[in-house]
Design a protein that fits this description.
Helix content: 25-40%
Structural class: alpha+beta
Number of helices: 7
Strand content: 25-35%
Distance between the termini: 44 Å
Strand order of the largest sheet: 1-2-3-5-6-8-7
Length: 248
Amino acid sequence: MEYIRVTKDNLEKEHICCAITNNKDVQVSSKKAWLADRFDEGLVFLKSVERGKCFVEYIPAENAWVPIEAEGYMYIDCLWVSGALKGHGYSSDLLNACIEDSKEKGKKGLCILSADKKKPFLSDPKFLAYKGFIVADEADNGIRLMYLPFDENADTPKFKECAKHPHIDEMGYVLYYTSQCPFNGKYVPVLEKTAEENGIPFRAIHIESREEAQSAPTPITNYALFHDGEYITNEQMNDKKFLKLVNG
C-alpha cells in the first residue's frame, strides 16, 4: 500500500478518507477548513492513496482539541481503517509511521482516546493494547486516555479535571461538537431541525477554538451528547437514531 501526506499544498485535490465526495459538500468543506488551520500547529494527515477509510491524523498534544495534560506527547486524533481495506495490516503501517515520525520529532510517546470496550468513533482498545498502549487515565463515563511511552520514565498523560467527571448543569439535550469530524457538518443541522419539529429541548454548542476544546466538560470534544446534564454518547446520530434515543 502506498500512502500520501495531505498538506496545505494538496489539500484541495486530495480526498480526506472519512468523507469521500466533492469539495462543495459541507462535510468535506468544513473538515478541510479545520485541517487547513491545523497544519501550522503540527497536524499530520497520512492516508492511503486508495479511495477509502484508511488514514491516521495526529498532532502535538499541546495543540490537540481535547482536555488533556500530555506535554511532549503526540496525540492521535483518529486512526481509521475500514471496509475492503481492513485486515491487511494497514492500521499497523499507519501507526508505525506515526511512531517513527513522533520519535524523529523528539516526542515522549503517543496518546489516544479509547474505552474499555470498542465503541463507535473510538480506537479499538484491544488493538491498542496489542501495540503496547496502556491506560493512562479514565473519565467517569468510561472514556480512557491510552498512551504508548517511548521512554519508561516519561510522565503519564492525564485528563484535565474538567473532563474527568463529564457533567453539565443544563437540562434537555446538549451537544458539544467541533468541525474536526466532517459528519457534523451534515448531521448537526439534522438534529437541530428534528428537535425543533418534535418539540425536543436541544442545543448544539460548536467548539471553535483549541482553548474551548481544552476546557470542555467532556473528554471527547468532536461529538459529545448530554441529556439533563449527564453524558450519553459520542456516536454520530441522524434523525432516526436521535428520535429512537429520545423515545427510549
